[in-house]
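User: Could you check the structure of this?
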Amino acid sequence: MIRMTLWSYTTLTDVATQVPMRRWGPKMEVDVVTSIEIARPRTHVAAYVCDPQNATAWYANIRSTERIDEGPLHVGSQIRFVARFLGRTIAYTYEVREFAVSERFVMSTAEGPFPMETTYSFEDAGPGDTRVSLRNRGAPRGFSKVAAPMMEAAMRRANGKDLARLKSILEGGAAGSRQ
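Assistant: Sure, the predicted structure tokens are below.
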């Protein structure tokens, strides 16, 4: 089961300024949350999802990833991504902002026309099952701001498909990387 939630613009707050955002306010934020249940233990699912080398296996739009630093992932780690989205190739670097093993993994980037934060949350969904929630949010700039509603719909569709692919890989036992 895939559950998608689109947060209302009227209930969001711009964290930096603590100013409530309005539907047509000065800063339009895209905020898409998608969840899925996977019949695998939380530690297994989280370890796979949080390994940047696996991203190309389950994210259709991710073409490559490269760790900029070495060693285990930690707050401050940087990962370079190359993706294809809405017909454009985009290169960006995410920085790990929060990493609670098997619970929560947050990365963000301020690069490009669409600065974004990606959050993965993991929780038990029954004996041996895991609920994975993927949240992408950001404030588009320039032309991307005008295209925000289209981008939001495309992100919602892509996230649903990506989580379904993740579920298939992990439940099918083919947890390999395309890289």
